[in-house]
Amino acid sequence: MTKCNFNQTLFIKSAAEWHHLPDNPSFEVAFAGRSNAGKSSAINTITGLHKLAKTSKLPGRTQLINYFQLHPKLYLVDLPGYGYAKVPEAIRERIQRMLGRYILERLPLRALILVMDSRHPLKENDEIIIEWALQRHIAVHLLLTKADKLSHRQGQDTKRAVEKRFAEQSDLISVQLFSSLKKQGIEEARAFITRWIVEE
Ligand SMILES: Nc1nc2c(ncn2[C@@H]2O[C@H](COP(=O)(O)OP(=O)(O)O)[C@@H](O)[C@H]2O)c(=O)[nH]1
Ligand SMILES: [Mg+2]
Asked: For the chain, which end, N or C, has fewer CB atoms within 10 Å of the first or last residue's CB respectively?
């Protein structure tokens, strides 16, 4: 496996519009998820850099796409969160359209990490994201975060139920429990990401 230093990940840029997206990354692994699911916290925990992605107690704050370079050939992408009811309808629709376009058309995109609160996995919008990724045969790693809020047993039951739901797509969909609070699941998440560093 390619060695890479997660804690040397660099912030590259934020983009608000399609034509501002970086045109040079070889490959991307993008993080998607509902607002407040724990996406930015997961990026920080996985890289070990606690100020890399901004976390917030107020959901729905950012509509920007943030790019981080993990390796010369691999960018991590923090996509805007979705599903937050207090965000105006027009902005929610704009985010949803952009996410669809990103997942269906963004050429460097190789894999998705879909961050979900392990207490409420697979909401309607999460299912839509998975559907888009499957249409394009993009691998999706379902990161069931805030596992510290569940008992060990509840966590295992949730993971098994989600795995069962996608048993027929197990070549493209993987599932893990994660907790930024307890630093649980870091190595498993890193292993998924480093699979996508392809040396020419
Ligand atoms: N207990 C617990 N709280 C978490 C965890 N991850 C994130 N949070 C909290 O959930 C809220 C939203 O986190 P954030 O990473 O900003 O979510 P994002 O909107 O998906 O980027 C913040 O208050 C975090 O402190 C976790 O693993 N366990
Ligand atoms: Mg965030």
From this structure: C
Ligand 1 centroid distance, CA of 82 (Å) = 14
Share the mean pLDDT of the chain.
92
To 5 degrees, how large is the angle CA 90–CA 93–CA 98?
125
Residues in contact with 20: Cβ distance below 8 Å, sequence separation at least 6, in sequence order: 13
Q: Does domain 6-194 have CATH number 3.10.350.10?
A: no
The residue assigned the tokens 């993971």 is 159
Residue range 83-120, pLDDT digits in tens: 887 888 888 898 999 999 999 999 999 999 999 999 99
Nearest CA to ligand 1 atom 3: 146
Residues in the 5 Å CB sphere of ion ligand 2:
39-40
